[in-house]
User: Fold this.
Amino acid sequence: MKSIPNVYIILITLYVSFFILDKLIFKNTLLEWAGGKSFNNMQEREWYRLLTGSFFHQNILHLLGNAYAIYFVGVILEDNIGSWSFLAIYLIGNIATYTAYSTFSNYSNGTGASPGIYALIACVIILHLYDPSFLNLEFGDWPVNYTFAYLILGNLYGMGAFIVHIPGFGFGSIITLLLLLFKIII
Assistant:
């Protein structure tokens, strides 16, 4: 029996906690300290922003969209591939995307977990194509419906969203294929 909650529950708790702390108590000071920035806007030793920016959200709609997405993707995926693989895909998807985006773009306020979520969605799709019986995906099921809607509608939020979702999906595809190659999953 598991003694700790699923990673996706821990992530949702962190998203909500940081949002409440930042908006209600610290009045956006946490976001200023830990939000994502491009390399040309970072001060020395602010590389931590490549990770911490993904735990902050601009507004309640952004928070809810990502919280529901990580929840439903987690329901589909985490118990099937294991918590460590789930966390690795999520974190590498976020960090790699924020690193690429920070290198080629100029911005001072990057937030959101969606690159990591898109990395996990890539994993869901690849595993389903690899072995359709492994995840047993069917439309009409809430986790599948929401994940598919998020995959499509999340890219309509603006060009900036689309630009960070595509690398997240790409990095998730690469990580998933490596995990399959080395037989870490399935």
Remarks:
- The radius of gyration is 16 Å.
